[in-house]
Amino acid sequence: MSESRHNVTIRPIGYARSCFKEKFGIPRQPGLVPHARARIKMLAPYNRPEAFRGIEDFSHLWISFLFHQHLGAAWRATVRPPRLGGNERVGVFATRSTYRPNPLGLSVVQLDRIEIAGDAVTLHVSGVDLLDGTPVVDIKPYVPYADALPDAHGGFAPTPPDRTLSITFTEAAEQQIAAREAAGLADLRALITELLRLDPRPAYRGHETQAADFGMRLYDFDLRWRIEGKEVTVTALVNSGTRGGSEK
Amino acid sequence: MSESRHNVTIRPIGYARSCFKEKFGIPRQPGLVPHARARIKMLAPYNRPEAFRGIEDFSHLWISFLFHQHLGAAWRATVRPPRLGGNERVGVFATRSTYRPNPLGLSVVQLDRIEIAGDAVTLHVSGVDLLDGTPVVDIKPYVPYADALPDAHGGFAPTPPDRTLSITFTEAAEQQIAAREAAGLADLRALITELLRLDPRPAYRGHETQAADFGMRLYDFDLRWRIEGKEVTVTALVNSGTRGGSEK
After folding, report:
1. Which residue in the set B11, B104, B140 is minimally distant from A96, CB to CB?
2. Candidates 1.10.1200, 3.30.2310, 3.30.9, 2.60.420; correct CATH number of A166-239?
């Protein structure tokens, strides 16, 4: 590919610290897990408080970011979206897949508050689908009169994902969650409930009926659960160390 | 600024050809001028028809693009949005101003149709606020269940701009429009009406009451109009050559 005069170098302006430590289990769109929180810490020289003047009047923000775990990866003309069961191929531009020509991600998040302390500027946001460590390259306000198009219709994902799973917790898991909530992880039980209702299993396994155990990394622990039919049981929060995403 | 391992080179995947030939007069958000049309012509190797498979099932698309007339320009921590009369300063991240650290623009547009002819792939879109020649760097589907947030609220631009101007046409202008519509520029009168209702004057001049003449480039002509109070009169379409945006 020839170099173009319109090739540009994009630089991170900040980094997101989020509860999601690996790709497995991250919601597939923003807003699906309202209690999924992140902090966006701005880098110098973009940490000037005046650059954010007025932003707290907006309820939501667009975060443009880099798919940093895909940097240098080849793009693909077609992908298999999980929403289609992981079997059917559609064009990459008809999806928000990471296998794009330019590794740009886009998420709308709720702005909870902005924290300014000395030369540190941190945006506290929620409803995220951002991997921990994501480089943020732009922040723009969500402008409802221009961006909210409730009459738009959308291809293979016209409605939010099914949330018919029922979530229960073992006594051990309840105690571990209560301990972490008491130590400062607010709304952890709500977060886990919202996450597992989305069924993080690989799409091709979502129709299995036999019981199976899964795990994913969340904050500094592994979340473990068992799924059987439509019943999810959260079994434990264990110290992190193993990779999640596989059967446990 | 130190080089980061997350600096990435972004490459155009296509270019937008639009009715807007200069910045003056372009709507300040997408969707405000439904008849503003553009074609996005894909570059090789992104012109593979299969990369767009399924896209026609979506009514709207997010277009990520470069502010190509701002490449190399310095960012500004604060800007004066037209919506605030051009006097009050807010943080650049509380706006969609072009004076950003990374020159990334974002617009939601309506997808009218996709045209595939040999190795040419062209997306026909409308409701654009894209300057002619804009480099497009990503195309993503608008996913209503995730992106349409009608309850979001938005800072200094909570509602669409005022459209209380009344638009009339001189007989000469009517004839020139009819001739161009007959030659293939469909809905030109509707486009002009939608555009001028938004009052393209600089914000600081929007409260003037004395009559003044303005012009802007549109397609291959200069659109000329007179404004006096709330009354706009379209006076002529003349062959392009002069720059618009100034008094005529």
Report:
1. B140
2. 3.30.2310
